[in-house]
Every structure is written in structure tokens, then in C-alpha cells.
Amino acid sequence: MLRSKGKQLVFVTNNSTKSRADYKKKFDKLGIPAKVDEVFGSSYSAAVYINRILNLPAPKNKVFVVGESGIEQELDAEGVPHIGGTDPSFRRDIEPEDFNSLADGSALDPDVAVVLTGLDFHINYLKLATAYQYLQRGALFLATNTDSSLPMAHSLFPGAGAVGAGVVKAIGREALSLGKPSQAMMDAIEGKFHFDRSRTCMVGDRMNTDIQFGIDGKLGGTLAVLTGVSKKEEFLAEGASTVPMAYVDCLGDLLV
Amino acid sequence: MLRSKGKQLVFVTNNSTKSRADYKKKFDKLGIPAKVDEVFGSSYSAAVYINRILNLPAPKNKVFVVGESGIEQELDAEGVPHIGGTDPSFRRDIEPEDFNSLADGSALDPDVAVVLTGLDFHINYLKLATAYQYLQRGALFLATNTDSSLPMAHSLFPGAGAVGAGVVKAIGREALSLGKPSQAMMDAIEGKFHFDRSRTCMVGDRMNTDIQFGIDGKLGGTLAVLTGVSKKEEFLAEGASTVPMAYVDCLGDLLV
Which annotated residues bind Mg(2+) (chains A, B) (predicted)? Predict the structure, then answer.
């Protein structure tokens, strides 16, 4: 409907487990026409930030990934070298000798310059400890996003922010988040699509990511859809921190 | 030396992976004379709190444990039923069907009333998600301690606080900590030893746990030992938040 009116659509997601190509497949299945280029995920945002903004000189430009294959695919697409992630050698229990080899650095890759945390269904102590050791040695600390929870199976589960929280607590400082509501993501999207912010509307179902993203980005409009984590009561309450300009019960209401 | 002067000694540790009996064995190895009853660990503190203070009526008094065997041993000693912990069925990757059975509650034990997090070298997403689901259903949230880091192999590693941080971030509230510097632990120790606080000295090597514990507990003295995580510069700096009454380079200096 929006497309038939000539509107440019960009699908902006914080889910870091899926690459843009994965999302394209998902949209195909749902019967939603979308191109890979119209999808902007937090993994892609992080990869673009690392490659184009940080632009670290090789060979000291490797990323230690705490996350799933979506992050790895986007880093590959941007030509950023990485370790960790889905590598089976990190999907195991920590052993007594790991403490020694991590402490003396012999288990660490001296070319790692960045720790990037995202949603990781295979999080374990070995990954937490390895990420922490890189950070202690001065690696930059990035996160695809810091969502506390993840809607799944009609319930909520720990999100990327919960997975990364162990590293945050250990090192005592927050990661730079490249997902919503981080404006680093808005800048990256603008860099690619050159849209007019005043004539752009952010549509989303989560106040502290989607709607906050639109407000902080000074977009012309913000539309809340009540099919997700956030409830109407949340932003209709007096003194609510994030208030959308308008809301609809479901996306279908836009068709009316 | 202190013992020969008739001093009562209590060894207070935040390490939740070991039970008091484990510590007794460790002291034996080090040639330090100590009785099990003189050891007060954060796992024991948590078990005492759950059994004697919470004193929940059976059968809805089970504890879901995120932690190692030290916690289980102390809960057993206090007769507190528990699940999770070292149970191999929780030491595995989360599977797609787990999301459904956790979301609809069929994988959950209706008698769980408490989630207790400690240091867990086998932390994984399944444990995070299970703990989070119990908390969402109203379970009490306790932690043996919230130390961000753990000294090991002449380096630092993620501590119990880092392991529990994922659950904290997901649920959006802190756990009640039963370890140093929590005064719940001081009260539990006093309940057992009936000591005179004004004539008691806390000796420790970490400012934000050990020394803070003594200060908050209004003990007569606090003595920092410079063999641990905290450095002299930390408390000698102007405006330092936690300052010991005295300090020594190492415990052996007490013998002089």
C-alpha cells in the first residue's frame, strides 16, 4: 500500500542473528515484497561502522564476535576479518587450562581490535572470558544492539543486551550500540538512502528502541503499532519517557 | 598468630562455587588451621537466608540455581530443595522446542519460588532463559554475590555478578545479593557468632566488597591487604569511595 503510493521503505531490525539476506528470505515467506537493500539490520549497521567509520588498518582489524551467523555474514560482506561467533572451538565448556592461556594471552589473537556482542544462543563462560580478556587489553567494545528482551513463542526471552550484559558487568563499561535507538544506525541508513528526515515516519512496536530511534533522529513522524512488546498504557501514562506521534492496533490498520 | 591471642576468626568469602566443606579442604592444603564452622561463604549465606529468613512453605519453596556445586551443597545442608545448578539437562544448547515449552510453562517447575544466581562456569542461554521465565512468573531474585570479576591465573575473569548480569538485564531489576558487601551476610554471621562489632576487624583485599562490608557493618576496624584486586592508589586517591582504616602489603606483615 505504502509502496504503491511511491513511498521508499526501509526495514530496520535489531535482530542480529539474521543477515539482510536471511531477512529477505523471511519476507519472501511472509509474502512481503522486499529487496535485500531495503533491509537494515543491526549486524549490518555494526559491520558498516567497523569497516567504513573505524576503518582500522590491517592486520590489527579483527573482530571477536559474540553472536550468531547473521553477524558473521555481514562482516564478511564488508570484508571485515573475524573470529569467535559460530566457530565450534568456542562452543564448549571452559577448561582449567583455558584460564592460564587466556591470562597469559597465548590463547588470544593479537590482531583482535574489536569485541562485538550480539544475540548469541550459544553464549558460555569461555566466550565471556575471552571477550573480557580482549577488552582488558584495549579492544574496542561494540554491540549490535542492547535490547533486554526478545519476543519469541508468544513470550519474551533474553535479548542481545542480556547476552552482552555479562561482558559489560565484568569490564565495567557499556558497549557502543549500533542498533536502534543508536543514532549511529540512523546515520548509516541516511548515508545509504539520503532520505529527508522531516518527511520520514518511523513505524515500530517497541518504544525504547523503535520509537525512541525516530524521536532521537528527529524524523517527521513516529507511529507505534500495538502488536509487540510495548503496550498502549506505557506511552499514554503521564510522564512517559517515549511517546509516539500516533498509534494503530496493527499494521493492517494502515490499509484502511 | 591471631588465634594464639584468643581471637575468634571467621573466613568470609564471596566465592559461591565452593561450599564451606570445600573451603575447609583448601585451608587444610594451605596449612591454615580452620574449622568448617569458621567459614562463611556467600552460598551458605544464601542458603541460610532462604531457609531461615524466607522460610517458604513447602512445596512452593524450590530454588532454581544458576551456579556450581558449592551452592547446591549449601542448599542441601539447609534442607532447601533445588533444581538447575549442575544438572546435566541444563548444560546444553537451547533447542527450538525449548522456546515453546518455556513460553507456555510446560518446561517449568511450578514449585520454584526463588532464582539464585552465583558464579557458573557453565552459564548458557538455556539457563538465562529459564531463570528469566521463572522471574517473569514472580520468583524472588537472589544472588550469592555480585562481584564483577574473579581473580584467577594471575589475571581477572568474569565473576558471579557478570554471570548474573544477563538475567538482571533481561528482567530489568537487580537481585538481592547475599554476599559481601551485603549486610544480609553480616547479619547472618552475627546471628551465628554473636560477636561485638566494635571489637571486630574486617581484613580483606577488595575495597568494594571486603572493606565496604566492614564499613557498612560498622565494625571496629577495617584492614586492607594489598595482595588482591584492589591497589593502594585506589583508596589513597582523594575522594575515594571506600577507605580502609589501615593497610598492609601482605597478610604475613601481621606477624611482625
Answer: 205
